[in-house]
Design a protein that fits this description.
Elements (H helix, E strand, L loop, with lengths): L2 E7 L3 H19 L2 E7 L2 H9 L6 E5 L10 H10 L4 E6 L8 H8 L2 E4 L13 H14 L8 E3 L4 H31 L9 E9 L5 E8 L6 E8 L2 H14 L16 E3 L2 E8 L3 E3 H6 L4 H15 L10 E4 H5 L3 H19 L9 H14 L13 E7 L8 E4 L5 E4 L6 E4 L2 H13 L13 H9 L15 H11 L1 H4 L9 H20 L6 H23 L3
Parallel strand pairs: 1-2, 1-3, 3-4, 4-5, 6-7
Antiparallel strand pairs: 7-8, 8-9, 9-11, 10-11, 12-15, 13-14, 14-17, 15-16
Length: 552
């Protein structure tokens, strides 16, 4: 049973008894801690104990300590000098008596509240129940109390790599272990548990550079609770993800969007957030090439796009942007595509590469689209007007969708950091292109050119109105792709949005082209897959142009 040391500076015996008894009940029922109290009736007595190098895990200090005495702020200053990681709470009955204290305290990490807030019900920010949680989180964050073990498998190459990265060149594995232990315990401190133990494993690599871990919380006599922990150097990006998650949660059901627990927690230069995850789960891409059956792949596609993401196309979430603005490609993407073209086109044309004779046309088509920011149609006035926007998850790729592999596999979404307004085809195009470039037919074949012709044919068939064999027999990833494609008009509510086929058809090909360009210039993509992306982008740009030119 853990024991913590508390300093209570209070000159009214009844208040002493109330604080001690209330926190005793919180720590006993929620944390199962014992508290060793040091009670001082004056600031001078408390400062004397601090000067004698006594260390306290937390301190609760009355600011108004009898006439003629130094106020409690002097005790707080001594604590800050002697032990900066002590949790300090100052109580006042008359906040106007200390006008600068509230603002100044925040800068030093000291908390100041009005005494009556302690008597709020347990949902109140500074009720005794919440105060106990805040003390617990603080002590875990500063490694003042270890209430649990954090373990991992040394054979798990992914988690060992994360720990090595967290340790850096100077800290090594031991420091990496300290960082991951601190972040796990901090992020999961709000979860009610008496003596939990944690097992950490690698889950996936986030596209933003963050590392995504799976954490299992095991407690005797209780079901295992599972979480996703995202660790990275960009604390501001993680904070933005928490805010975006809260917005996305207003449109998506709790069963499909994992919610963040608390806020961002930090250890040194690293920050982390945690989300709850139920049942066994793995990234969609891994599941499709591993455990999924064709029927399950179609079912998960239906649930994800038909039951869940369809909600983002609701009438109240729609908007419009000018077609001209939508067609323009971001400058950074144009530069990246130029680089991808330079490193790819020669081998696309080479007989030992793709052996394609149309490489000059591919390059001209892409460069013209990027430079002009529009399509080379016969009648440019047909590109006036607006496109419909809906709310989008924004970063819908096969690592941001996890599949809970229970009796009936169910998809869940993680990382809603890019949630916002997008073209109606944005989410769907992003997922289909990601699966085409990074999941379908990967492994050794993605390093070779032998299947290039079949790849490009498949990438050209990601449209419900273009010739193809959809649906067809094939592996689960093909079943998933086909199910999304054939159900697209219903899932995206074309009829409700009154988007007729000539309009949605050419826009869909542009959406695919933009995604093939954006994802195809990523530096970690193999050269054959980068070539596939460029050839496919040129094909969809050309198809969109032809469709607009054929309009009556």
């Amino acid at each position: 049973m853990p024991t913590i040391r508390g300093l209570l500076v209070e000159d009214i015996p009844a208040n002493v008894d109330t604080i001690k008894e209330s926190l005793y009940l919180v720590f006993r029922d929620f944390h199962d801690w014992e508290t060793e109290w040091t009670v001082c009736e004056s600031a001078l007595a408390a400062r004397r104990r601090i000067a004698q190098s006594e260390r306290f895990d937390f301190a609760i200090i009355d600011l108004e300590l009898g006439e003629g005495q130094p106020d409690g702020a002097a005790v707080a200053r001594d604590l800050q000098r002697s032990s900066a990681d002590t949790y300090v709470l100052l109580l006042t009955k008359v906040p106007d008596k200390f006008p600068d204290l509230f603002t100044g305290a925040r800068r030093t990490g000291v908390h100041v509240i009005i005494r009556s807030q302690l008597n709020d019900d347990e949902r109140g920010e500074w009720s005794f129940a919440q105060l106990g949680r805040k003390i617990r989180q603080h002590l875990i964050a500063h490694n003042r109390l270890s209430t649990s073990s954090v373990r991992y498998d040394e054979d798990d190459i992914g988690i060992m790599s994360i720990i090595a990265d967290l340790g850096g060149q100077t800290g090594g594995t031991r420091h990496g272990e300290t960082v991951i232990r601190s972040l796990v315990q901090q992020c999961l401190a709000p979860v009610d548990a008496r003596s939990p133990n944690f097992h950490v494993g690698y889950l996936t690599q986030g596209k933003s550079g963050a590392c995504v871990c799976r954490v299992d919380m095991v407690e005797a006599g209780q079901p295992t609770q599972r979480f996703v922990l995202k660790v990275g150097l960009d604390g501001e990006a993680l904070a933005a993800e928490v805010a975006a998650n809260e917005q996305a949660a207003k449109a998506l059901r709790e069963q499909v969007l994992v919610r963040t627990i608390g806020g961002v927690r930090s250890h040194g230069q690293y920050s982390a957030i945690a989300v709850r995850l139920a049942e066994e789960a793995q990234p969609l891409g891994s599941w499709l090439v591993g455990d999924a059956t064709p029927d399950q792949a179609r079912e998960v596609a239906n649930v994800l796009f038909g039951d869940e993401l369809r909600r983002l196309s609701a009438a109240e979430l729609r908007g419009e942007v000018p077609i001209a603005d939508w067609l323009v490609t971001r400058t950074i993407t144009r530069l990246r595509v130029d680089t991808a073209l330079d490193r790819t086109v020669e081998i696309l044309a080479h007989p030992q590469g793709a052996g394609r004779a149309d490489v000059p046309l591919v390059r001209r088509t892409i460069e013209r689209f990027l430079t002009d920011g529009t399509l080379p149609v016969d009648r440019p006035e047909r590109l006036r007007g607006n496109v419909v926007t809906v709310r989008g998850f924004g970063d819908l790729h096969s690592s941001n969708v996890l599949v809970q592999t229970g009796v009936r596999p169910r998809p869940v979404l993680i990382d809603a950091s890019m949630y916002g307004s997008y073209h109606w085809g944005g989410d769907t195009a992003r997922m289909l292109v990601d699966l085409t470039l990074r999941v379908r037919g990967t492994h050794l074949s993605s390093l070779l050119w032998t299947d290039f012709s079949s790849w490009t044919s498949r990438a050209a068939e990601l449209c419900p109105s273009c010739p193809g064999e959809t649906p067809r027999a094939g592996p689960p990833v093909d079943q998933f792709l086909d199910q999304v494609v054939v159900s697209m008009s219903e899932n995206l509510r074309f009829e409700e949005m009154t988007i007729i086929e000539p309009t949605w058809h050419w826009q869909w090909h542009v959406a695919l082209a933009k995604e093939f360009l954006r994802q195809g210039c990523h530096p970690d993509l193999t050269v054959p897959r980068a070539g596939l992306a460029l050839v496919s982008a040129a094909h969809h740009i050309g198809t969109a142009t032809d469709l607009i030119n054929s309009l009556r």
